[in-house]
Amino acid sequence: MDASEQAARNLLGLRFDALGDAAKDMLRRSKPETINAAYPTLLELKIGLEKITSRPELLTRLETALRANHASLVQLGLSAKKIATHAHLLDHDPESIRQNFAALRGAGITPRKIATLAQLLTLPPQTLESRINSLKSLRISGEKIAKRPELLARNPAAILENYRLLGQLGIKPAKIAAMASLLGQNPDTLRDNFKTLQELGLKPEKIVTQPQLLGMDPDTVRRNADIILGLGFTREQVALQLQLLGKKPESILANYRNLRRFFPRETVLKHPALLGNSSETVEASVQFLCAIGIDHEQNPALCGTTPAKKRAMIASLMREAGYAGLDEGGRKDLMEKTREFVRKRPYIFKAGEVRAQARFAKAA
After folding, report:
1. 238: helix, coil or strand?
2. Residues in the chain with pLDDT values less than 70
3. Per residue in 188-244, pLDDT tens?
């Protein structure tokens, strides 16, 4: 056994035997002093034994090179934890990394996103350009690519496969471009979710209106559907409130329990959309409606918007009625008049601002 192998064995222990033949030969060709210096340096840089074993080439790098590369990555915005996760970057030429970073910035990708997706730093500028052009050929704009840089880390062939699959499922090119994140999904996930949604009774033309659901964890979609159905809602109601399938299961249950504080079960079951509202929104709306004299139990749909929106509607009615030009007494009268108007017509909170103002003016 030569000195280099002995040095590696002393540091890696039984893990050395688990290395492939090529990795063992690489370590044998390295100098024992290089290995002995690299190992504690890597540990100091927060690169654990597990990662070192998976990247044994790092043990063949000079200590000074490892430290210089680490410092260079930190200057580019990568945290020590992120560098440890992508320790292979320490084996790359710092100048190449800087050039790749500059190319990514030129594509409109922010330093923060680059730091989050550190694997992109191994993409040479020509490869990056090729992948960007490939995405643009699928109608994905440069702005969208900059917002979804994770697509650049995917094999272009895999992206194209997903694009074709989504098209086969009935999703239009414009919709795919708008939901570009789906191109980075596992194709089996897309197929499983489409099938799950069909099993819920949804027709394909309905599914394609909510393509973001295809990118969710299939188990989450099934679990949410089971929870909502178990609460007493129908499959038809689920089909009309697909966005609920994308929420956290515990949020759905918590929202249901909160709704039951204010409404009978029958009322809740008639308004499934309320399951998508936070407990805070519902409770604050109930309090606001009670404060202005509106029975919330008779108007459950109004609890789906925040009090701020309702106040804004009242303010717009008063403003249109000339509130600014009135004296204090006139303003108080107008305020009471406006409240009386909405008390008698609570549905006005669901109307558009222009229509509400017209109805208010007509009632005056």
Report:
1. helix
2. 1
3. 989 988 988 888 778 888 888 888 888 888 888 888 889 999 999 998 888 888 888
Virtual CA dihedral for 260, 263, 266, 268, nearest 10 degrees? -70
CB 46 within 8 A of CB 81: yes
Structure tokens at 191: 């197929």
> Each residue of 132-173: pLDDT tens digit?
999 999 999 999 999 999 999 999 999 999 999 999 999 999
Taking the CA of residue 153 as centre, how many other CA atoms within 13 Å lie in the half-sphere pointing to its CB? Answer: 16
pTM exceeding the 0.85 threshold for the entire prediction: no
**% the chain with pLDDT above 70:** 99
CA 108 to each of CA 14, 118, 179: distance values in angstroms, whole numbers, following the listed order: 46, 16, 19
Identify the CA nearest to 287 among candidates 303, 264, 269.
303
Among 173, 106, 185, 179, residue whose Cα is nearest residue 146? 106
Coil vs helix vs strand at 48? coil
Rounded to the nearest 10 degrees, what angle do helices 307-320 and 279-291 cross at? 40
Cα 290 from Cα 120, distance rounded (Å):
55
For 131, counting Cβ atoms within 10 Å of its Cβ (0-12 exposed, 13-18 middle, 19+ buried), the class is: buried
- Please choose, from the candidates 184, 182, 69, 163, the residue with its C-alpha nearest in 3D space to the C-alpha of residue 117: 184
